[in-house]
Amino acid sequence: MLSVDLYSGEDALRRDREHVLRRTWQFMGHDSQIPAAGDYLADVIGGAPVVVVRKADGALAAFHNVCRHRAGALVTDGVGNCGEAFTCRYHGWRYALDGRLRNAVDFGAPAGFDPRDHGLFPVCVEVWRGLVFVNLDLEAAPLTALIVPLAVRWPDGQAGFPLTERRSHSIACNWKAYVENYLEGYHLPMVHPEFDADVVVSEYRTEVVDQVIFASAPPRDASVYGGLWGWLWPNLGVNVYRHGYMIERMTAVGPTETRLDYFYFFDPARTAELEAMLKVSDLVTAQDLQVCEEVQRNLEAGIYRGGVLSPKHENGVAWFQDRMGEALRVS
Predict the structure, then answer these.
(1) Domain at 26-139, CATH class
(2) Where do the domains of the chain lie?
């Protein structure tokens, strides 16, 4: 198992960001959120501010949300429109939407200054079924290498469903503690007893396929949550239901703070069912919040130094811990 010391502290968070979160494909949002030229999505990925923008030719580009002058922000986090160019909010330097420095406003003429050497720092960006992903590693393998197992099992008939609802929740635990909770159904009878009315909890199983972990349980009649449950390395849940799907992004905000961002995509003809789904979702999140925060408290108490994993229920957790250990270069 991973060392308990890797679940708290600034040094552990720095290593997670450096070796994992900044070297993997991270979900930013949906293509429909930025339909017009100049529209952008801005967020913090692995501790680094990133912006994805729609260029005039319709293609997307992504950059670090950092001016090359003195590190000012180009745009505020969230969704917006920057017009025909990025304008630094600090000193007004302007950048074309392809990242080139267009105008170092009122800067003067220092010797040897070449605007071509001061373009924005690029970030990889790809879109799959309308879902926008970025990767800060410019030598990263294509998104396809990650997504294939999910694409095989998830028919593309829901790709046109609109983004209907978005919610965020904060949990006072390390992001890895939450991911591990997400990757096993062992806790369902104790933490989510209501689940057994929706799916057959006793038959809950997890399966690792390349870099995707799938969970399944036979749905009961009128099941709300029954469907395809997937998780993509290192921190993204993709839950597919008969009436739509939900993307769950697990963001490490601090050493012991995780933000869950839920993006709900729903069949327009079945939006009447959304309320029931959100009610169950809020209940499940509240239950997970309580147990994950209790686990985090106990991890930091100095008593627990490691345990054992169930070969029947926690194979997904074991895979995740092994993969984290490899990435962090720890045994």
Answers:
(1) mainly beta
(2) 26-139, 148-328
